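Can't paste images in this forum, so I'm doing it all in text. The chain is below; anyone willing to post the predicted structure tokens underneath?
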Amino acid sequence: MTEPQAALSKQDPPGRGQRRRDNSQEPVQRGNKWWTLVAVSLGTFMLLLDITIVNVALPDIQRALNSSFSDLQWIVDAYALTLAAFLLTAGSLADMYGRRLLYLVGLVVFTCASALCGFAASTLMLQLSRALQGAGGRSCSRCRWRCLPTPSAAKTAASRSGCGAR
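Text version of the structure:
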């Protein structure tokens, strides 16, 4: 083995999206694709559940926090507004820093904001927590399907032609 080959073999394996050292065109997969599917599916379920569950809880929120009708509207709209407002921003950040990283950061922000919603002592705190949830939710939803592994172009073309790729 020559020195350059020995140096290459000591380096870390390439990450997702990087090419193998043997110059094959197939990108390297990191981790188990089924765990990724489960994580993305659970994240999507949490986001969709959060959109609808607040509507069910509005009467209890109104009683517990002594909120007006306008306050309740902002509890719902703060989430929807930030979810829509961060659409383009989340896409740009995903392009700059990577979809996987943005998905994980968004999931952490969403989870922490959900905890803040649970501990909200006032309507304003709940509204701001919901807005933070919307920002984290947009980061997750913008990147969720892009985090899933995709088949290589050669395998896809071969399967379409009926040949099957090995």
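The CA atoms of residues 39 and 86 lie 22 Å apart. Residues 4-15 have pLDDT under 50 and may be disordered.
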